[in-house]
Amino acid sequence: MAEQNKVQGPASYFPSIEKKYGLPVKHWLDLIEGLKELKHMEMVTHLKNEHGLGHGHANALVAYYRRQQKSGPGP
């Protein structure tokens, strides 16, 4: 039963992102909001080059942001 409550998808990276970079996920999502005119991989590249995020972390944040934009605000 515990596996049903386990976070999956891009959000599963959030604890390690916060631990590694010392900033809350909201910081990164707010930053991505300012990049919304860019394509997915352009956003990822920006996060990697300008803020030092690893590819997996940057991609997870962008994927989560884009999914939220399509589905509306989360809980």
Fold and architecture overview:
Pfam families: DUF4287. It comes from Bowmanella dokdonensis. This protein has helices at 14-21, 25-33, 40-51, 55-71. The chain has 75 residues and is an all-alpha fold. It is globular and about 35 Å long. Helix 3 crosses helix 4. The chain has one domain (11-71). The chain is built from four helices and no strands. Helices cover 61% and strands 0% of the residues.
Largest sheet: none
Number of helices: 4
Q: Please tell me the overall pLDDT.
A: 92
Terminal CA distance: 22 Å
List segments where confidence is low: pLDDT < 50 over at least 5 consecutive residues.
none
User: What is the number of E strands?
Assistant: 0
What order do the helices and strands follow?
A: HHHH
Q: Using the CA coordinates, give the radius of gyration.
A: 12 Å
- Work out the strand percent: under 5%
Structural class assignment: mainly alpha
Which shape, going by the Cα principal axes?
A: globular
What percentage of residues falls in helices of 4 or more residues? 55-70%
Into how many domains do the coordinates divide? 1
List the helices and strands and how they pair.
Layout: H1 14-21, H2 25-33, H3 40-51, H4 55-71
Helix pairs in contact: 3-4
Features:
mainly alpha, DUF4287 domain-containing protein
Please provide a brief summary of the model:
The protein is built from 4 helices and no strands. The protein has helices spanning 14-21, 25-33, 40-51, 55-71.
